[in-house]
Amino acid sequence: MDPISKAFVAALEQYARREKVPIIAFRKGQRKDDIAAEQRKKFDKGEGVVFIGKAQEKTPVFRTERRRNEKTGVSYSWLVRSTAMVNHFYIYCVDHDFGPFFLKFSTYFPYNVKLCLNGHEYAKQQLVHQGIGFEALDNGVLRCDDPKRLQMICDRLSADKIDALLRKWLRLLPHPYSVSDRKAGYRYQISMLQAEFSLTQVLDRPVTGRVFFEEVIRENLDIGRPSQVQLIFDRRVSRRTPGKFRTRVISDGVVPSLHVDYKNTRIKQYHKEGRALRTETTINNTRDFGIGKLLKNLPALRQVGFRANRRLLDVQKISHDCSIGEDAFDRVVRPIEIERQRASALRFGDPRVQALFAVLVVFSLQLRGFNNRELRALLAPLLGLDPASYPIGRMTYDLRRLRLHGIIERIPHSHRYQLTPEGLRIALFFSRTYARLLRPKLAEIMPQAPPIASSLRAAFDRLNSEIDSCCEVQKLVA
User: Fold this and answer.
1) What DSSP state is assigned to residue 184?
2) Do the beta carbons of residue 67 and residue 37 sit within 8 Å?
3) pLDDT single digits (tens) 146-192
4) Where are the domains of the chain?
5) What are the residue ranges in the chain where pLDDT is below 50?
6) Hey, which CATH number is domain 341-444, 1.10.10.10, 1.10.520.20, 3.40.630.10, 2.60.120.10?
7) Which has the closest alpha carbon to 289: 244, 248, 237?
8) Which residues, at least 6 apart from 89, have a Cβ–Cβ distance to it below 8 Å?
9) Distance, CA of 43 to CA of 36 (rounded, Å)
10) For strand 23-25 and strand 48-68, is the pairing parallel, antiparallel, or unpaired?
11) Residue 224: predicted pLDDT
12) What string of DSSP letters covers 78-126?
């Protein structure tokens, strides 16, 4: 096998010189994807080899060892399965139909090859060829002029097209098997080592989506239990089922992600780039679902992966809709325009707004409502003013913006007002949280406050102490 290995390496190096393709040796700790991204920026062709990467990695191999016949004493060679650190060549290419992908060749027998491609890149290439406008979302699509057509493109990514991609580039690139080897039947056959199936749901209000996803994580920490996992994968789970059944929440910086494990399969759910909810099922062993590894089984595996994504969403639950609360809060604290009538915001921390809400709660039990004078008589003292000198116009202004914000409504055929059902809840919540939660608790944790037996104050003091200790250890200047 040694002459085959040397001939393959020589042919690959000769190909790189002839086609002027750079060969880059990957150093330990380098991210290959980062280097590939930099090289693609320099690549200005529609199709071809971008660069060839070289790295020494551990891989399964067949090796020979010397054995001796016990009867005759004659030594002989014997093939054994083993592992070895051998050179691998990563050939990064751009295909006209599939976009960027790479082939990883082992230089040692049996000369394994890994094909790594991205279905999202295939879809983007097809959208470009068909002249359909779209906006990319890293590993996905954020917006598309023809979503139905995009879905058809994704559905038509078949095993035959993937196999044709491999055959095309094996004809173009040097590889260990010669023409005579291929005629004798020695050919590469694709099996599925890892397959990822994703569902990307783009959010029209990304900030609300982040809050929503954090609530999903908080309320579904038991999703990894066997009873829940068998609902997601439609597989019976018993005590004899191998693997760990668990839910993990992993944070990358400030971005949390939810992970659910089943045998060698993992579902990952996260808030992608702050714009979409991404659900990914990664299958590392097709036999966990009674499916063969050959590429012809891709349609059956697709059904497992995509159904798992959908079933996870069906199983997940959340006790409230985050957007409802956000909408209600925004309608109050931001300026509003109703039928060309504008009203200023009722800001949460504004003393005048808090006084208005506190007075409105007093009138909540009066069936006959209230008028300008009655509201003014209670509001003025809360603001430290004399009711007799409180301007009527200012009170009229406040009544108008309370009405346009939906807090109060005019009683028909009168100059009296009453709280709306929604307005009563907002007035109660805003006034009570400000008076009973925000002000007293903030007073507890401020440095100038006198020491008191408060768990909240103690927690903040410990936090401040830990930060100071960390600065001292790191020798940071205050």
Assistant:
1) T
2) no
3) 999 999 999 999 999 999 999 999 999 998 988 888 889 888 999 99
4) 1-117+158-189, 191-320, 341-444
5) none
6) 1.10.10.10
7) 237
8) 9, 12, 52, 53, 54, 104, 105, 107
9) 10
10) parallel
11) 65
12) EEEEEEEEEEEEEEEEEETTTEEEEEEEESSTT--EEEEE-HHHHHHHH
Q: Are 201 and 289 in contact (CB under 8 A)?
A: no
Question: How far is the C-alpha of 462 from the C-alpha of 452, rounded, in Å?
Answer: 14
What's at 248, amino acid-wise? R
pTM score of the predicted model: 0.71
Half-sphere exposure of 277 (CA within 13 A, CB side): 20
Q: Which of 359, 383, 385 is nearest to 372 (CA)?
A: 359
3-state secondary structure of 262: strand
Q: Which residues contact 382 (CB under 8 A, 6 or more apart)?
A: 355, 358, 359
For 228-284, what is each residue's pLDDT tens digit?
Answer: 666 577 666 666 666 666 667 777 766 788 888 888 889 999 888 888 889 999 999
Report yes or no: 412 and 396 within 8 Å, Cβ to Cβ. Answer: no
Yes or no: say if 323 and 206 are a contact pair by the CB < 8 Å rule. no
pLDDT of residue 476: 66
The type of residue at 431 is S
Rounded CA separation 68/92 (Å) = 45
Per the structure block, which two tokens stand in for 234?
């439609």
Predicted pLDDT of residue 26: 93
Cα-only R_g, the chain: 34
Domain 191-320 has CATH 3.30.70: no
